[in-house]
Amino acid sequence: MKCINFIFQRNNIIAKIDPALYGSFIEHLGRSVYTGIYEPGHISADKEGFRTDVSDLVKELGVTTARYPGGNFVSGYNWRDGIGPKDKRPVRLDYAWLSRETNQFGINEFSRWCEKTGIRPMIALNLGTGTPQEAGYFLEYCNHAGGTTLSDLRRQHGQEAPYDFTLWCLGNEMDGEWQTCAMDAHDYVKKARETAKIMRWIDPGIQIVACGSSNSMQKTFPEWDRIVLEGLYEQIDFLSCHHYFENRTGKMSDYLGSFLQMENFIRTIVATADYVKAKVGSTKKMMISFDEWNIWSIESDPWQSYFENPKHRFEISPPILEQTYSLLDAVVLGSLLCTLVNHCDRVQMASLAQLVNVIAPISTQPGGKAIRQSIFWPFKMFSQYGRGEVLKYLASIPTLATCYGEAKVVQSATIHNAEKKEIVFFAVNIQETEPLEVSFDFHTFGNVTLMSHVTLKGNDLFSRNTFVSPDEIIPHSLHLTPEQLARNKITLPPVSFNMVVFRTEC
Ligand code: AHR
After folding, report:
1. How far apart are CA 354 and CA 365, in angstroms?
2. Residue range 175-180: mean pLDDT, rounded
């Protein structure tokens, strides 16, 4: 068995994690909103129609932000359709997902839901069919105190105080040919810049996110990012990144190396941002909002196939993108979380896409139960225990060949939470058959005691949580031997996600 010794030093840190790294995403897509978070008439629904069984799981998951209302949906969405008396709201065709949108849930409902779940809203603007002026009107409706037609309309709609939403995204994936009114980078810069100017005039307190590349396979990557950054560097606070991961080659070793694909993507964006910083002579460090990421088998399971049956076109909340996740998916997701955390000096915010039903950690039945998918667990463990400063490490780690390059056999992230006097080591062993022994050198932290080692348990790597059997995949505490406890040593099972907690003296 290989043995790896990790050496940590108290002040040798990457950065402190911003809570916004554990954000999520709710789009008007499939059953994310309707019969997901919102289902009037459901046995658990509160007076406002929010499913409290789902809200409870959302709170348990520990997500900190929610990006809304899209996604591809937003590029054809008129925010005015979702405000005012519900019986007067129009029913529209949604071009992005070939669905019918009833608009029974809009910005006011979203804000109430966020208040109830303790989540910080992140609002995406329509930069497809929308105009800079409409974006300004939307912000005025939401954040202006009163005395104008739109801000007074919000007050009439029952929200006296301004919402003071602070996070605003200038469109969604405008580089993607699938996007409603997609455009090239230069056209995007022009539209985004004028929109950002209006937004800041209305509310100088907001933070603005511009569209980066939709993924690293885009033909325009990373030129899109360079042009957008050069054109908008002083107007924006964040560049967004989106990326979904899947088993593209059918080889488990490649799939387990997905974290390397994410890492390469982030490094390229950071390098591009720093190049532009020098080129435009700025002192600002551009931060990244990785506001769509997850595992999504889109190539092997394209969502469009549902609409091959013409009867399904323009259904209300069709059951699309409802992926069920395996234990293997949860392990890969854990390694992606390690990567995000290890880049928290630049990736300040991130959104797991999405939250409920649509490629999500939570699944619901209309009128029925809500369950945790396998990927719920690593996210929850990170959000709960992954708070504090991320430690750098010294270790000599062997590698494995993957289609993304040489991947370390163990992907890890280590977080020191000084308040809780805790060090938490998250790790994924990507070796398919070999366990891995890990030892730790924490001598600059004083006495450090190994407290627990939790992994995820399931019958096999392909088992999944279902409505019939919702606890197939659950966290499981491993027994620690007296020798392991005495010597701060652990063993990572093959293909496993692990969380190891240590208590520190200081
Ligand atoms: O999350 C699903 C979709 O993936 C989003 O609508 C879009 O932004 C991305 O392509």
Report:
1. 17
2. 98
